[in-house]
Automatic annotation (TrEMBL):
Function: Regulatory subunit of a potassium efflux system that confers protection against electrophiles. Required for full activity of KefB.
Keywords: Cell inner membrane, Cell membrane, Membrane, NAD, Oxidoreductase
Entries under Gene3D superfamilies matching the protein: 3.40.50.360
Underlying gene: kefG
Places the protein is found: Cell inner membrane
Membrane topology: Peripheral membrane protein
Presence of keyword Chaperone: no
UniProt organism field: Photobacterium lutimaris
Signal peptide range in chain numbering: none
Flavodoxin-like fold domain residues: 8-174
Protein name per UniProt: Glutathione-regulated potassium-efflux system ancillary protein KefG
GO terms, molecular function: electron transfer activity; FMN binding; NADH dehydrogenase (quinone) (non-electrogenic) activity; NADPH dehydrogenase (quinone) activity
GO cellular component: plasma membrane
Amino acid sequence: MTANGLPRILVLYAHPDPEASVANSAMLAAISQLSHVTVHDLYAAYPDFFIDATFERELVRDHDIIVFQHPLYMYSCPSLLKEWIDVVLSKGFAHGEGNQTQGKYWRSVITTGGAAEAYTPDGYNRCSMDEILRPFELSAMLCRMTWLPPLVLHWARRVPVAERNQHGENYRQWLQAPGALMEEAKDGE
């Protein structure tokens, strides 16, 4: 926790083409001035995909909430984020005999190119966003982290600018006061 009682939040931002992302750019702009939030752009830090696991694990240790912000790619995350999960949250650190992530919180913040209706059993993708994100929820569980409900912006490039900006504002507000969601998640365990 910070001196002002807010949890330390690490936003792992993973977008292979950040200049093309109007939604993620707006979301990052909305949160950029929050002093208890560290935004870590994985594609900027590791263009060669060689992840410094020691540095990354120190970041994880130093934060209470880990936010995985990325576009939905092929029903998953961009490849560098998957590499980060595999390398950093490995057995011996985050699970197995390792317990460095125990008690932390995991929240996925996702943008999609499709409308919300596409993520239903009858929609184009034939399953819900909860079903698509199940591997991430299971990873959080394996790492003894508390899974927080994802924050999803559907149709990210096509929503009206006002709606996109409101989504960024909702994201900022949650990062400034995540307690209610954290309590709700703990009550559901």
